[in-house]
Amino acid sequence: MSGASSRRKGAEWERTLVHRFREAMPEALIRRGLQYRSGQEVSDVEVPCFWLEAKAHQRTNLREALRQAVETCPAGRWPLAVCKDDHQPPLVAMPLEDFLELVREWWEARPR
Q1: Residue 32 belongs to a domain with what CATH number?
Q2: Which of the residues 26, 70, 77, 110 has an alpha carbon 20 to 30 A from that of 40?
Q3: What is the Cα–Cα distance from 73 to 80, expressed in whole angstroms?
Q4: pLDDT single digits (tens) 8-35
Q5: Is 13 in contact with 56 (CB distance < 8 Å)?
């Protein structure tokens, strides 16, 4: 796949994620990160509370995507890697401690 085609595929995946997160979080401001970023200051998709690294390849490296999200994630956000291999359902990864914190917040806020 050429460089332009690969960038187009990545941008399409980011747009798909924007729509999916908007469905799940209707009132939230969700958008693609800056396309001209220098690499470290903007996530691929801007989502409240998450620092999202999006990858779409023939075969993604989920651990590498998560490492990248963790390394660039600012304080107060949860690093999240959302990866999609060609012709496969997408996967989400985050560090266990962050996931447990998220579960704890959800558990305490759930309707009783």
Answers
A1: 3.40.1350.10
A2: 26
A3: 9
A4: 888 899 999 999 999 999 999 999 987 5
A5: yes
